[in-house]
């Protein structure tokens, strides 16, 4: 599935069809017989340059007026997920404002970033995976060394979102708008479809916004 298709914002009926197809694995290519998922790739120079530039840029600032309705809507949805680290309404609004701003800076749909966080960490800033990925968007620590920023704290919300959104946006550009392959690269599972399906299902079922 390509980003241009998703930005057309399908109707409710079409969304149900897309969700059913994603669940059935129809919209994404299956892993060829005998193939293995991709191992950790060597970071490309282009991605490292993008990441280094992004991390040295000022904090993203969203347009709170345009985003106000979105923030209130997503705040109530996030509350239903009962995130312990964002138990208060103010904490949820602050998180959502940061997500909206960072997604806009990277050219990503903020609802998709929410879906990715939902799948990756269940909105736990202190989450650490068995592979060592950290924070809301489960960023691997090796990225800090690659761009010469060992001081960065990947459990810090703003830092984690900046890393995660920049990396995902780069993979989307590399895959020419193909969300399935971009999400698989983000997860380190290129060739498999389970992870992209999980993120898309979370997007369509919990975070979708009709426009």
TrEMBL record:
<keyword id="KW-0732">Signal</keyword>
<dbReference type="InterPro" id="IPR023346">
    <property type="entry name" value="Lysozyme-like_dom_sf"/>
</dbReference>
<comment type="similarity">
    <text>Belongs to the transglycosylase Slt family.</text>
</comment>
<protein>
    <submittedName>
        <fullName>Transglycosylase</fullName>
    </submittedName>
</protein>
<dbReference type="Pfam" id="PF01464">
    <property type="entry name" value="SLT"/>
</dbReference>
<feature type="domain" description="Transglycosylase SLT">
    <location>
        <begin position="100"/>
        <end position="189"/>
    </location>
</feature>
<dbReference type="InterPro" id="IPR008258">
    <property type="entry name" value="Transglycosylase_SLT_dom_1"/>
</dbReference>
<feature type="signal peptide">
    <location>
        <begin position="1"/>
        <end position="35"/>
    </location>
</feature>
């Amino acid at each position: 599935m390509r980003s241009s298709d998703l930005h057309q914002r399908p109707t409710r009926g079409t969304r149900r069809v897309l969700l059913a197809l994603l669940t059935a694995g129809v919209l994404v290519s299956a892993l060829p017989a005998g193939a293995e998922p991709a191992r950790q790739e060597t970071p490309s120079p282009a991605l490292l340059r993008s990441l280094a530039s992004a991390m040295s840029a000022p904090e993203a600032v969203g347009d709170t007026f345009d985003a106000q309705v979105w923030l209130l809507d997503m705040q109530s949805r996030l509350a239903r997920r009962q995130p312990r680290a964002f138990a208060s309404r103010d904490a949820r609004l602050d998180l959502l404002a940061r997500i909206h701003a960072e997604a806009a800076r990277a050219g990503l749909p903020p609802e998709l970033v929410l879906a990715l966080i939902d799948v990756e960490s269940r909105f736990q800033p202190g989450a650490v995976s068995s592979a060592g990925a950290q924070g809301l968007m489960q960023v691997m620590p090796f990225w800090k060394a690659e761009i010469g920023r060992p001081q960065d704290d990947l459990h810090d919300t703003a830092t984690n979102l900046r890393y995660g959104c920049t990396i995902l946006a780069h993979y989307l550009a590399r895959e020419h708008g193909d969300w399935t392959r971009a999400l698989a690269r983000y997860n380190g599972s290129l060739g498999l479809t389970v992870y992209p399906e999980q993120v898309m299902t979370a997007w369509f079922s919990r975070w979708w916004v009709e426009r």
